[in-house]
Amino acid sequence: MRRTIPSPSFVAVAAAVTATLAVTLVPGGTAVGQAAVPSGPNVVAFPQDWAKGTLYATVDRPDTKQYREFYTSAEALAAARAGRPIPDGTVITLAAYAAQADAAGAPLKDANGRFLKGNLLAVNVMQKKAGWGEQIPAAIRNGDWIYQSFTPDGKANDKANLTACYQCHLPFAKDDYLTNMAKLKGTFPTQAAAAAVPGAVTIAGFQFGPATLKVTAGQKVTWVNNDDTPHQVTLVGGDERRSDLMLKGQSATMQFDAAGNIAYICGLHPGMKGTIEVAARP
Ligand code: HEC
Ligand SMILES: [Cu+2]
What we know:
single chain; five-stranded antiparallel sheet; 15 strands; binds copper (II) ion; Immunoglobulin-like; binds heme C; Chalcone isomerase; four-stranded mixed sheet; mainly beta; disordered N terminus; 2 domains
């Protein structure tokens, strides 16, 4: 059976999306002058029949204890598989569900080790239409894609941080800002997992390993991301250095010259925590 999402009616509220320049809190909490996108209703209408589209991927997210389903039209999937541009008007829907959890809050898993679907939490949508990108500040624009986050009953969530949608998808520019869908044509960066190296921290399954690394002052530390999800090393307390976003297979390096314990988090997933113990030079 051929199942597609009918093109949604476009609500003429483009004015509400007018880009503004403001001081924004980026994940990790550092205030920086940055282009911001206001939350609330915009040109993306709730895709009423999203669940009738084609389900093309599911993702378990241990960091947020969510189970996610991804839907789009048959036309868009055919284009992605063939490596053709994603058609104008395409709607991609991310249905975020709470993972079912045990009494201690740990996600339950099925026979394949995958999360089990709980309550629907949010319906996140990206849609592209020629010219729409002009509504978004150039620094964070994602081509002609516009993002929106809806509550399960179909209302635009006016507390959603839409600026973060653009910032986080920006590193995927060469794949038309797509992640799972880009994988369908096999161009997603999937370098082999790097072998553990002394002085290196491996990021896998939303964890820094080892969580505590001991080095000597003057030494460099390298982080290697083995997750499909991007991560970003962000030092906290005093030294506020922040690495570039690391996609799968990418690494970042920082040098530590002073003795002491350096705490850090992931700038995108602040629940991820690690420590570098820097010993004085002998
Ligand atoms: C922390 C970084 C981050 C933020 C913020 C973010 N995304 Fe994403 N997005 C991802 C990643 C990584 C994926 C791949 C699947 C996953 O991990 O859930 C993704 C996948 C998607 C997809 C499916 C794309 C595909 O190729 O399959 C949609 C749609 C989407 N996000 C919409 C949104 C919307 C709407 C927002 C803002 C409300 C948003 N995203 C915010 C990182 C982010
Ligand atoms: Cu992270």
